[in-house]
Design a protein that fits this description.
about 425 residues, alpha+beta, two-stranded antiparallel ribbon, 11 helices, 15 strands
Length: about 425
């Protein structure tokens, strides 16, 4: 009698280091400016002035010389057209008095009069942005010539400003025509071949161009795996990374309340454990789905979930398990806030509100580092009860007449 073959246990498919890439899409304008300033040995203010000066001084000859060989050689002979565009951008930035990241953001979005084409998909990138960054890289002012401030998921934030999932969100970009058949919005598990106990979860945010077999992980995904990456090359020391889908539903990522990095980790843990409950099966995972799933856990399920938790998932699980009906007491609690937001006040005594930023410090020396991902003061998340601080404490007091919803984030809107 023939022996029955044992069914192979489902597990991750591994991708060798040479077929992995780093995706920096979504790096904020502010971070891009700081990166360029550091490369050039300038302050951000000096860097902005130099960028305008170089683009304004561009001539057909200087552009053709810059693109004669190496990066940008595909644009050789297009000096006149490129110089005209660079000059126009310089004039546009001068018109806006380019003194903040917001001014560059508006240019890239196509919001500067006469330069609307810069913000158009593909055309703006191929005609303006990539050639411009390449030219400025050759002038020693740019680190990453492929940089895009956009990513595959965007939504309208405070002040009707378009926001994007940042490069530090743990996400995956799949390529067309490659074996990676993830659905947009799915959550996949990434496993380090050198240490299988080292894993992270990432959300599939988009589909990249064809013809390149690489699996792209965002800088945030690499960070959750413990690797440091500052550019487009695969981090040093990587052997291979395994991937497997743990939450296959979701035809799109959640654009209205993008999951934070830790929330993606918890969603992946719940999905892999079979404990994720979705109000709309087949749709995007939401913060409400996470709350429902965590509230429904019994002791046996919690034990089963535990082996799928990494550090980020544990942080989010603990945060969600904290009591939320606790009444705020504006006079008691931990160390008092030393500095709140200068122009926003709450309660009868008009106390300044807390917000997630290093400037929002308390008496013990730490600062508020978490807040709502849907309610902002200025460009910072508004802090609530139980949001975290840099020294491991949490916000313990507040106004009991104002309720602030949303998930938790440490993100900052582009300056």
């Amino acid at each position: 009698m023939a022996k029955k073959k044992k069914a192979k246990k489902a597990g991750p498919t591994f991708v060798k280091a040479r077929n992995l890439a780093v995706c920096t899409d979504g790096k904020t304008v502010a971070d891009f400016e700081k990166e360029g300033a550091k490369k050039a040995g300038l302050t951000v203010e000096e860097w902005r002035k130099r960028v305008v000066e170089e683009l304004k001084a561009a001539t057909p000859k200087s552009v053709d010389e810059a693109f004669a060989k190496g990066e940008g050689s595909g644009w050789s002979g297009q000096g006149q057209a490129m110089a005209d565009r660079f000059n126009a951008v310089a004039t546009g930035l001068e018109t806006t008095n380019y003194d903040s990241s917001d001014k560059m953001f508006d240019l890239l979005e196509g919001n500067v009069p006469g330069l609307e084409r810069v913000g158009k998909d593909r055309v703006g990138y191929t005609e303006y942005k990539r050639p411009m960054w390449t030219y400025l890289k050759k002038k020693g002012l740019v680190e990453d010539r492929n940089w895009q401030h956009t990513s595959a998921v965007s939504w309208v934030g405070p002040g009707h400003k378009r926001m994007y999932a940042t490069n530090m969100t743990p996400y995956v970009v799949r390529r067309k025509g490659t074996p990676y058949d993830f659905k947009k919005g799915a959550i996949v598990k990434l496993v380090d071949s050198k240490d299988p106990s080292n894993f992270a979860y990432a959300q599939v945010l988009g589909v990249g161009p064809t013809g390149d077999p690489k699996l792209e992980l965002s800088q945030g995904a690499w960070s959750y795996l413990g690797y440091d990456t500052t550019g487009a090359s695969t981090p040093a020391g990587v052997g291979s990374i395994g991937y497997q889908t743990v939450v296959s539903s979701g035809t799109s990522a959640n654009p209205n309340a993008m999951l934070s990095g830790d929330q993606i980790q918890l969603a992946g843990s719940l999905g892999e454990s079979g404990l994720l409950q979705q109000a709309k099966p087949g749709g995007a995972v939401t913060t409400a789905d996470l709350a429902t799933s965590v509230a429904a856990l019994d002791d046996k399920q919690a034990a089963a979930l535990d082996k799928h938790l990494n550090a980020g998932a544990r942080r989010e699980l603990e945060r969600m398990k904290k009591p939320v009906e606790k009444k705020a007491d504006a006079s008691g609690g931990g160390p008092k806030l030393v500095k709140g937001f200068d122009t926003v006040f709450a309660g009868e005594k008009l106390r300044k509100v807390g917000y997630a930023n290093a400037a929002c410090i308390h008496e013990a020396g730490g600062y508020v580092c978490e807040g709502s991902d849907s309610v902002w003061v200025g460009k910072y998340p508004l802090a609530r009860l139980f949001d975290g601080t840099s020294d491991g404490k949490e916000v313990k007091t507040g106004n009991d007449t104002i309720l602030v919803g949303g998930g938790t984030t440490s993100a900052t809107l582009s300056a």
